[in-house]
Amino acid sequence: MAGKYFGTDGIRGRANRFPITPDVAMKVGMSAGLVFRNGEYRHRVVIGKDTRLSSYMIENALTSGFLSVGMDVLLTGPMPTPAVAMLTRSMRCDLGVMISASHNPYEDNGIKLFGPDGHKLSDAHEAEIERLIDSDLGSRLAGAAELGRARRIDGVQDRYIEFAKRTLPRNLSLEGLRVVIDCANGAAYKVAPEALWELGAEVIQVGVDPNGLNINREVGSTAPAALAAKVREMRADMGIALDGDADRVLVTDEKGHIVDGDQLMAVIAQSWAEEGRLAKPGIVVTVMSNLGLERYLSGLGLATVRTPVGDRYVAEAMREQGYNLGGEQSGHIILSDFTTTGDGLVAALQVLAVVKKSGRPVSEVCHRFDAVPQVLKSVRTGRGKPLDNGHVRDMIEAASGKLDGRGRVLVRASGTEPVIRVMAEGDDAAMITAIVDDLVAVITEAAA
Predict the structure, then answer these.
(1) Per-residue b/e over 40-73, b at no fewer than 16 CB within 10 Å?
(2) Whole domain around residue 436: which residue ranges?
(3) Active site residue 102
(4) How does pLDDT run across 146-180, given as a tens digit for each residue?
């Protein structure tokens, strides 16, 4: 859904600018609280956040909104997005909220909402919340005796660590593995290193000193150079890079080479297929996943189901079609036997388990296929809509025709930023580079 407030991953924007303002956040709390009140019992919502300076402001505003409509609020402090989704179900909450802009810089922030089942909200629920935000909420406030109560809850970090550890076989130890973990100065800066250490790994930490302004800054899954350098420096067996809210992961091998989400899904898919753990013979990916992954899985007899970009669409397709593994090239990997959303730490543990069992280096374990050449560029847009331009549409159609079934062209508007993503992939690297450059030029002109 893309509405006035909600994009493809909740509500997101520049902190203290519409829609990420205290007044909107308070109305989101009021509206979401009203939508998920469905009985006379004490309703409650769990709220987690990442380490951005603005998360404190949004947390307080949301809390006020929920309290004003009679919902009790449980505050966790900094916690990964998947931990909030897990706690929503585990603690029988009516709603879960994560305050985060994921991999974006600290200047941005966002609000992600989870239903009582731990899944991101449906389009229908988001539409109803949007309708209420712009309505007369003053007439819906709780009475003085029915106001909600807010409190900080202890022990949730330990609870999530134990949950993550239990996704591995009880007798599997990571002893003997030297692992560098980069937490992006974000939400997992405490829980991820602790979980790896408790599982027996020798842990070297990067990006674990948040100050409110350094989340994702030259660290994390969107800036893995620091991790790669540390892996080489420490002669580690593997590097793990999370993003600001730890719902995505990238890995580096012992040589410092980056391993993206497509390769990680290939590792897990083959391992689970061999162990009979795939619910169906295939996985769910987005339109951005490399054609090389699709060809590799086909060789294993596994299907590839594609969805629009966004882990919520992956999760929806997994539920509807009965798959238990899916994700995105960017590192959002959903393992629905354990989680309802992308979980960077849990996905990394599954890969570490394969490395440990095989006894082979990560460079061998995590290189399952040669990626088809893929070029991705972004065009920043203003208020115009270049994809509605007839000439732009004609150019996109002509570009697809050039590949003649030997590749793909994908042009889409981002759901989280004011940019147009232009991607092409195919066996002819020079051709796809030229295609992307030509499309970027015409879209840039149309967006001017």
Answers:
(1) eeebbbbbbbbbbebbebbbebbbbbbbbbbbbb
(2) 374-447
(3) yes
(4) 999 999 999 999 999 999 999 999 899 999 999 99
- Residues 47 and 125 grouped into a single domain: yes
Q: Compute φ and ψ for 24, nearest 5 degrees.
A: -65, -40
From the DSSP assignment, how many helices (H) and strands (E) are in the chain? Answer: 14, 19
- Angle between helical axes of 390-403 and 429-447 (0-180°, round to 10): 180
- Which residues, 6 or more positions from 75, have their beta carbon under 8 angstroms from its beta carbon? 47, 59, 63, 150, 151, 152, 153
Given the residues 31, 100, 102, 330, the one annotated as active site: 102
Q: How far is it, in rounded angstroms, from Cα 352 to Cα 349? A: 5
> Quick check: helix, strand or coil at residue 27?
helix
Q: Is 52 within a domain? A: yes
CA-atom Rg of the chain in angstroms: 22
Assess whether 182 and 207 both reside in one domain.
yes
* CATH number where 36 lies: 3.40.120.10
* DSSP SS3 for 337: coil
Task: Encode pLDDT of 289-343 as tens digits.
Answer: 999 999 999 999 999 999 998 888 999 999 999 999 999 999 999 999 999 999 9
Sign of the Cα pseudo-torsion (361, 362, 366, 369, in order): negative
User: What is the Cα–Cα distance from 242 to 207, expressed in whole angstroms?
Assistant: 10
Pairing relationship of beta strands 178-182 and 238-242 according to DSSP bridges = parallel
Interatomic CA distance for residues 191 and 78, integer angstroms: 10
C-alpha–C-alpha distance, residues 60 and 66, integer Å: 10
Written as six digits, the tokens of 430 are: 């020079």
Number of structural domains in the chain: 4
Question: What is the value of pTM for the model shown?
Answer: 0.91
Do 23 and 134 have their domain in common? yes
Does any domain span residue 363?
Answer: no
Pair 164, 140 in one domain = no
